Amino acid sequence: MLQASGIIALLILGTALFVAAEFAAVGARRSRLRRLAEDGNTLAARILPVVEDPHALDRYIAASQVGITLSSLILGAYAQASIAPRVAPWLERLAGLDQESALSTAAVVVLLLLTTLAMIAGELIPKSLALHNSTLAALITVIPMQWAERAFSWSIAFLNGSGNLVLRLMRVKTTGHRHVHSPEEIELLIAESRDGGLLEPQEQVRLHQALRLGLRTAKQLMVPTSRLVSVDVATASAEVLRIAATSPYSRLPVYRRQPEEIIGVLHTKDIVLDYVSRRPTASVTSLLRPLERVHDSIPADHLLAHMRDRRIHQALVIGERGQVEGMITLEDVVAELIGGVSDEFKGATARALLLADGTMRLPGAMRLEQAAQVAGAPWRGAGETVSSFIHKSLGNPPAPGEHVTIAGIALVIEVLDDDGAVASVLVLPRAQRPQAGKPQ
Q: What is the pTM of this model?
């Protein structure tokens, strides 16, 4: 009985070896193995050519699958031939079965028990261990796996050839196994590279932002029409020149009748060239440049590709009903990738400032999601600014110096613009927050 237990344990260990090798080969990081091989690790030098070549990886995995199948079949056959006859007499005595029925029942019981044991100890546990530390598992299993690959070479060639033939008949392209990682796994790789000193913190942030660019929409990145510095199409050229000369913006949206009806954009270069010409135009209509229109739900990465292909620097953002929601520039999208880009419509001052007493000053023009992140506030609102969020939350125009509490965060309205918008707001530290505020 001890000999049979040893053989069963050996077969289950063989299954575990092949399972661990399969998941480790797919999950091992090539950069990590390459670095180990360069440092002189012979096992890493053995496994590196496998994970870098899709066809070699395909044969390697095929060898593990053949090994798993053979060890499982041998385990079942051995259990039925050697273990079941020893269990059958017990069933005859305990259950009162005849010899043939006891033998059949014993074979089923033993097969079920060993299958369960093989799945737990031979598949689930080694799979989890291999996924937890793929590099170590790949190094441990590479030598026996290369022996198995040579031993199973004939069956691997036959099985892979048969499978590829069936796939070709189904018109499915065969490319072999590849290392494919989800965005979450890539973020983990980036974080580990930063912890290992291969990436600077700023580089890690930029890569993280690039991965998450597709989760941002044009509506979240745009400048709402209420914050655009725009001019009426009926404005005289001389007045437009004065506005352009005193404005830090290089492009001025032009509207007809109301700010939401934007009909084009003026470039300051065109205004200056028209002014220095011998016969300047009386109206700016002839100087207008057309504006591309994009839907507010378009992802930022698609928008970036669209603006690059069309060679445009700005576009109008259109809502569900065709109304103009705002304007988005190339700088808005690029700022999500590298940060710190001065945006001509938002200005360079739309950033939080931590004061000496622990109070944080938030510009009213700051995007709400950015303000919520730096202030640690549970604020939510797509495409909103701090100013618009405060107005919507309070339901009435705030007054300068007014203390309010929104979602548990105590604020002091610092400055209001001439139009009643919140220019800046102070976020009080917990020690300075009043016991009673204005809850919302």
A: 0.43
